[in-house]
Structure formats: C-alpha cells, structure tokens
Amino acid sequence: MYTFSANVVKIFLNLFGSINRYRKENIPQSGGFVIACTHTGWVDILWLGVSVLPMKIHYMAKKELFQSRPLKWLMQKLNAFPVDRENPGPSTIKVPRKLLKEGKIVGIFPSGTRTSEEVPLKRGAVTIASSSKAPILPVAYVGPNNFKDLLKRVKPRIIYGTPLYLPEDLPKKEAMDVMMEELNKALNDLQAELKSK
Prior knowledge:
Layout: H1 2-14, E1 20-22, E2 33-37, H2 43-51, E3 57-62, H3 69-77, E4 81-83, H4 94-101, E5 105-108, H5 124-132, E6 136-142, H6 147-151, E7 157-160, H7 172-196
Parallel strand pairs: 1-7, 2-5, 2-6, 3-4, 3-5
Antiparallel strand pairs: 6-7
Helix pairs in contact: 1-2, 4-5
C-alpha cells in the first residue's frame, strides 16, 4: 500500500514540476535513522516521502488524525503512527525506538507545526535518536506548501544535510543539548542555502 500510494503521489506531484534534490549522497543506506525536516505545509510531507523512494518513512503524526476509522486505516497503511503532542509520555518513544531497532526510517517535523517562521524546535527527534543511538538526518524543503502553490508551479527543492550523531564524550543530557543545537543550526543553514539557489 505504501509503495503504491507513494508512486501515485509522485506521478501527481510531477504534474506540477519535478523536484531538485541536493546532496542525496548524505542519505544513510543502511541502519535505522531519524529524518528531521522543516515543515511549512502539507506538500513537504509528500515530497519528503517521495524523495527517498524506494525507502519508506514511518511518520510520527498527531493523534487527532487517527480518530476517524477511515483516516486511521489510511494513516496506518501509510506507515504513520500516532503521538500525543500535548501530553507526550514515555510510551511516545516506544514505537519509533522499535522501528529504528529494525533498521527503519522515522520521520519527524521538529517544529511540531507548519510554519514559515523560525521557531524553537521540539526535542522529540533528539530524544528518540539518543535513546535509540541512531543518527538524525537533517533535511530542508523549500517549495509549494499547498494546492495554490502547486498550480502556480512553484519549484520544489529539497536538501539533505550531514547525519548528526549524539556526542559520546559528554554526559547524556549535555550531549542531547549539543545535538539539539546542531540540529537547529543544520536546519536553518540548509533552508537558507536552498533559498539562495
């Protein structure tokens, strides 16, 4: 279902213009990792998934998307899993930790919401990566955010940064703070670079 849906989405998106991908050699080819991407609209979710095919992303999604039975079925078929963004607890990281252990990709949007403004990142990506000893791949997207932008044929671009690893020579809390700062800087730098292209 995922592969079929992703390829249908790819055909649909390409009707409005193909995507430019930069530094795709930075995408890890083995082992589980977290993709942390900038988030400005619903289109970036689709292009991110399409851009790494045939790899499959398991997205963290807000629990509200799982409340109706048809939408819940669809989200599960698309490898998404629910998270309570208002009251995250220890159980929040169980599913992504299991996925990473199995060598799969977990997709997270660290801003926690769609925005074109620079906002403080939530710690979910770093918490999950550190507890799983998995790298974070910072990714930035610039392009159409909605259907109106697609019709205007706004050019989509995506860039993959260098994978980030939790520093092993520091206490865990300090190491997580460092990783958080590195992720924030990487996403800001990647987005600025894309906008300059």
